[in-house]
Amino acid sequence: MTGTLIVALDLDLRAEAERIIADIGDAVDFYKIGYQLFYGGDGLDLGKALIAAGKRVFFDLKLLDIDNTVEKGAAAIAATGAHMLTVHAYPKAMRAALKGTKGSELSILGVTVLTSMDDQDVHDAGYARDAAGLVALRAEDAREAGIGGLVCSPKEAELVRTIVGPKLSIVTPGIRPSWAEHGDQKRVSGPRAALDAGASHLVVGRPITGAADPAEAARRILAEMAGGTRLA
Is the predicted pLDDT of residue 101 greater than 60, yes or no? Predict the structure, then answer.
């Protein structure tokens, strides 16, 4: 599997994001817009502009609320023509989002356990499971709900793939190529290893957006994804 690279535009301002997008050019056509840019940097309108330009957009909003609110929020995102939207992988939230996007091309992704969390963090949050156990539970819930895929650490991609089967998307943040720092991510993996474990989409932010040459950084990651030589 060669997989798909998604560049995370975790930036403050639309102008910053547009500069990165221009620098990357045709190397990547799929972008993630999360809280930071969506709420503070005109991210919704930027996403619409990218979609109009033929790019694919993943709105990482991690919806979780009462059913009606999740349903209406997901419907609003579906109307933009976006490709992916995250909700927390609770059964009611997933079903509500799926209801709101019926008839659209928007794929609902359930967020399992954040890649910045380890077993101790999961325990501190009140769960009587380790991170992998909670991911497995969320994966089973997502499979039953019938959503488009899951977001999980590359460390759990193989486990999730065995639970959800071959068709669902497995989207993995926490991707760090051999030449990049881990930052605040705790459960990380290299690009090729994540794909070999069962991931279908890799989300990469700072190693690309913080690089002196974002297009070159993206190409280096794509080379690793394809199984090419890791560049030091």
Answer: yes
Does the annotation mark 62 as catalytic? yes
Catalytic residue, chosen from 32, 48, 55, 62, is 62
The predicted-structure confidence for 159-207, as pLDDT tens digits, reads as follows 999 999 999 999 999 888 776 565 555 556 889 999 999 999 999 999 9
pLDDT tens digits along 25-43: 999 999 999 999 999 889 9
> What secondary structure does DSSP assign to the chain, as a single string?
---EEEEE---S-HHHHHHHHHHHGGG--EEEE-HHHHHHS-HHHHHHHHHHTT-EEEEEEEE-S-HHHHHHHHHHHHTTT-SEEEEES-HHHHHHHHHHTTTSSPEEEEE-S-TT--HHHHHHTT-SS-HHHHHHHHHHHHHHHT-SEEE--GGGHHHHHHHH-SSSEEEE--B--TTS--TT-SS-B-HHHHHHHT-SEEEE-HHHHTSSSHHHHHHHHHHHHTT-PPP-
